[in-house]
Amino acid sequence: MDPLLVSFAVTVLVLGMVSRLLKRHALSPVLLALGVGVLVGPAVLGWIDPAAAVGRTRLLEELTRIGLALGVADIALQVTRADLRRNARRLVLLLTAVMVGMWLLTAGGAWLLLGVPVGAALLLGAALTPTDPVVASALAGGALPKRMLPRRLRRTLQTESGANDGLALPFVLLAGLLATETAGSAVAHWAVEAGREVGLAVVIGPLLGWAVARLARAAAADELIGSSYVPLLGVATALAALGLVHLLGGSGVLGAFLAALALSLTLPDVLRGPVGEMLSAASRLGVVAVFGVFGTVLPWAGWLALGVPGLLFAAWALLVRRPPVAGAVLLASGTGPHSRLFLSWFGPLGVAGIYYLAYAERYGLPGYERLFAAGSLAICASVLVHTLTSTPAVRWYARRSGTERAEGESAEVEGPLP
Question: SS3 sequence, 336-386?
Answer without folding.
Answer: CHHHHHHHHHCCCCCHHHHHHHHHHHHHCCCCHHHHHHHHHHHHHHHHHHH
